[in-house]
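Support request, please re-run this one:
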Amino acid sequence: MINGQIFRQYDIRGIVGEDLTGESMYLIGKGFGSYLRKKGLSSVVLGGDARLSTPGFIEEFSRGLVSTGCDVIQIGIVATPVLYFAIWKLQTDGGAMITASHNPSQYNGIKLNLGLGSVYAEELQKVLKIIQTDNYEVGEGHVSQYTGIDDEYMDYLVANLKIERPIRLVVDGGNGMGGPYLPKVLRRLGCIVEEIYTDPDGTFPNHHPDPTVEKYMKDLSAKVVEGGFELGIGLDGDADRIGVVDEKGKMLFGDQILNILARDYLAKNPGKPIIADVKCSKNLYDDIRKHGGEPIMYKTGHANIKMRMKEIGVEFAGEMSGHVFLGDRYLGFDDAIYVSSRFAEIVSKTTAPVSTYLADQPKMYNTPELHIPCADDKKFEVVATVCNEFKAENYDVNDIDGARITFEDGWGLVRASNTTPVLVTRYEATSEARMKEIQELIETKIKKYL
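Re-run finished. Output below.
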């Protein structure tokens, strides 16, 4: 039977050979196929990343889907955004991507889609319930191969982007799935590209493929500075998250990347709303307002944000973790290959160094995302108690996702991670001393309930 714990908030993820085997992938394929068939749907596009277990898992997952009467279009080893693009291009009812994103090499997993929307939270639990109760549909589907999607995807990107001058940059693919695409797209647009770690390798021999963590961006930073490049771009394992370093090798946080993209977007789309998650800097929200936009603070999580964009008709959103969603001149899903190219497009419009782009903003001191261990069955209760305590003391609290407490000179956040047994915190203020005060105030309350 299936270990229910691998059905996380946004996707399915587990250790290969323990949580995920050929048999469990077959059952998950049956579960997802039955979920679709119960909705009167039947066509699925299926791809996977470069992890060593992926090719076998694609076959077993296909076998499960077909047994329920679903028709499967296999597109092979691709980046997650290419899978999303294929759902749109081939007009399938759903999609599945075999990937564990930026998790270590011993993991694999699956991202499930209903159209371009994620199957997540309660809907993902419905798939699990089908498996646990053997409530499968039965039918005779068939499998076909589609081999042209890579070229169609890259052609689409190139046709919808324009580089004003040939910029020089470095791409670090992290040995993930973005390497075969991004350098080609950038070169076709006229950029001069140096590549590191762009060959997909499911063992991730050079560094963990997470471009939001500074230590994994060190080689990229060094390469940019050594070669006098204008910027460096890092991608995560399945190429749906972006990281950037400026010409000095300094890493930009996800909210800073979003801020630079937002200024460019608002120059052509004045007055439009932009969604950002609760972990983003006050500078971002203030800057969106200053440049004529309407900032909307929302829950963390790519699936949450995509759903909210659709619900209220927003075409641009992003989060601290490097997921950026552009419906402006694009299809609205999180695609780090497209977003990287769009960032390069912005850089090509000026000769000013990337390090100066946000130099007019107030200096803020902030922590990265911090984690406090807390059991899965306790973490949401701890956050709710802390949130209520701050409210009772008349603090300014936004509770859209945990508790973001705002002060005149800073803010602090505590929320329960949806994917791991931790509380996530982040702090920001106008001085380092004040930032530490806010951190101490919030962590003191948290520690009472751990």
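The first strand starts at residue 12 and ends at 15. The chain has 13 helices and 22 strands.
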